[in-house]
């Protein structure tokens, strides 16, 4: 089955053509970073307008790249939520029109479930059961996966998401938006021991997280070292990254052990973090656990992961209807499945 995936939940307009839920034939992502960068964050109204400009060329580009004629597409999968309503509506409305025009089925997909499914697009997908760390701009959670559509929530952040903390720390240091990748690069040049930051919830025997304390500790450091923090920014980045990565790596490996899983996955935008990839791989190897982290292009927002979920939905006979609408807040309740 050939599925066209469409994603427009935030500031990336993306389309992909995926065969049978795992073989990516084409994946196109148009980022709006250059526009929002000026404002230090995503401006919702600008994002919607840019999605409108980008959606047709991005979808046409993905179909052309895939080498599959448009009339051979079997179904459409589109992000329904959570995200910015104005942004979601562009992709969602386009998908409705495309499916109606081609007379093919379509289905709305949850963005978080899509991130979790990105791991099935890699050449060596994890066998069930496995535990998954979803770590992105808006979410940080741990799940136990027992089937393609069966993700059980084990714990989640009580305040900031890890990616959000990265972006806020980058802003405090004057490094612009989005900050994750800049801090990651800077951290490699600093000494992680020089500025020691707290590791919240590390001692708790639960899978919940808290990142606002680490962020506040960075702010306090900057306020108390107004003259030197600029020259120390690589050490701040390294200290911050070490604290975040320590907590994330410890919890996901602990979750794998406690849940009897020999495989773990890390997905979402922050899964692109080099420090996290290295630490999880190193510590998991010591514990005899196999690690599955998607390639960098599948960590950030993309439409291939949307098509991957859509494939299972459409194959199971699920359909969305013209009356369906987008949603802005988390709706994905994996425990209920
Ligand atoms: P969500 O998926 O929770 O709805 P989102 O779609 O905005 O939120 P993603 O696109 O999955 O989030 O990820 C973006 C986040 O990943 C940003 O916070 C960004 O700073 C962070 N990020 C990207 N690359 C890195 C990196 N190398 N290190 C740390 N963080 C990173
Ligand atoms: Mg984004
Ligand atoms: Fe995302």
From TrEMBL:
Q: Where does substrate bind?
A: 134-138, 167, 180, 184, 273
Q: Name one GO cellular component term.
A: cytoplasm
Give binding positions for Fe cation. Answer: 111, 115, 301
Highest taxon, organism lineage: Bacteria
> Does the record bear Acyltransferase in its keywords?
yes
GO MF, one term, reads: tRNA N(6)-L-threonylcarbamoyladenine synthase activity
Q: Where in the cell is it found?
A: Cytoplasm
- Main location class: cytoplasm
| Domain Gcp-like as annotated: residue spans | 23-307
- Names of required cofactors: Fe(2+)
Keyword vocabulary terms for this entry: Acyltransferase, Cytoplasm, Iron, Metal-binding, Transferase, tRNA processing
User: What does the record note about the cofactor?
Assistant: Binds 1 Fe(2+) ion per subunit.
Q: What is its EC number?
A: 2.3.1.234
BP terms from Gene Ontology: tRNA threonylcarbamoyladenosine modification
Q: Which reaction does it catalyse?
A: L-threonylcarbamoyladenylate + adenosine(37) in tRNA = N(6)-L-threonylcarbamoyladenosine(37) in tRNA + AMP + H(+)
Keyword set includes Metal-binding? yes
* Biological role stated in the UniProt entry: Required for the formation of a threonylcarbamoyl group on adenosine at position 37 (t(6)A37) in tRNAs that read codons beginning with adenine. Is involved in the transfer of the threonylcarbamoyl moiety of threonylcarbamoyl-AMP (TC-AMP) to the N6 group of A37, together with TsaE and TsaB. TsaD likely plays a direct catalytic role in this reaction.
Which family does the record claim for this protein?
A: Belongs to the KAE1 / TsaD family.
PANTHER family attached here?
A: TRNA N6-ADENOSINE THREONYLCARBAMOYLTRANSFERASE, TRNA N6-ADENOSINE THREONYLCARBAMOYLTRANSFERASE, MITOCHONDRIAL
Name-wise, this protein is tRNA N6-adenosine threonylcarbamoyltransferase
Name of the gene encoding the protein in the UniProt record: tsaD
């Amino acid at each position: 089955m050939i599925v066209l995936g469409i994603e427009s939940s935030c500031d990336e307009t993306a389309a992909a053509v995926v065969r049978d839920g795992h073989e990516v034939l084409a994946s196109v992502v148009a980022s709006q970073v250059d526009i929002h960068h000026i404002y230090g964050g995503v401006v919702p109204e600008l994002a919607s307008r840019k999605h409108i400009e980008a959606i047709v060329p991005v979808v046409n580009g993905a179909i052309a790249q895939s080498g599959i004629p448009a009339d051979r597409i079997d179904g459409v999968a589109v992000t329904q939520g959570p995200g910015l309503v104005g942004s979601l509506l562009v992709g969602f409305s386009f998908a409705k029109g495309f499916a109606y025009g081609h007379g093919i089925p379509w289905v709305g997909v949850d963005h978080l479930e899509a991130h979790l499914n990105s791991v099935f697009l890699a050449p060596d997908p994890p066998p069930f059961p496995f535990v998954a760390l979803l770590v992105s701009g808006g979410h940080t959670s741990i799940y136990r996966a027992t089937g393609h559509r069966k993700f059980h929530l084990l714990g989640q952040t009580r305040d900031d998401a890890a990616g959000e903390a990265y972006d806020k720390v980058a802003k405090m240091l004057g490094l612009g938006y989005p900050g994750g990748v800049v801090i990651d690069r800077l951290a490699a040049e600093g000494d992680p021991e020089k500025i020691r930051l707290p590791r919240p919830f590390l001692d708790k025997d639960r899978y919940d997280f808290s990142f606002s304390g680490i962020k506040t500790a960075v702010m306090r450091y900057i306020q108390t070292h107004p003259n030197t923090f600029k020259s120390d920014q690589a050490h701040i980045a390294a200290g911050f990254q070490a604290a975040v990565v320590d907590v994330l790596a410890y919890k996901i490996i602990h979750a794998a052990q406690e849940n009897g899983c020999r495989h773990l996955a890390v997905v979402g935008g922050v899964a692109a973090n080099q420090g996290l990839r290295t630490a999880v791989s190193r510590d998991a190897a010591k514990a005899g656990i196999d690690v599955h982290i998607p390639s960098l292009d599948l960590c950030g927002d993309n439409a291939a992961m949307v098509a991957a979920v859509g494939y299972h939905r459409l194959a199971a006979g699920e359909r969305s209807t013209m009356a369906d609408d987008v949603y802005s807040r988390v709706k994905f309740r994996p425990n209920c499945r």
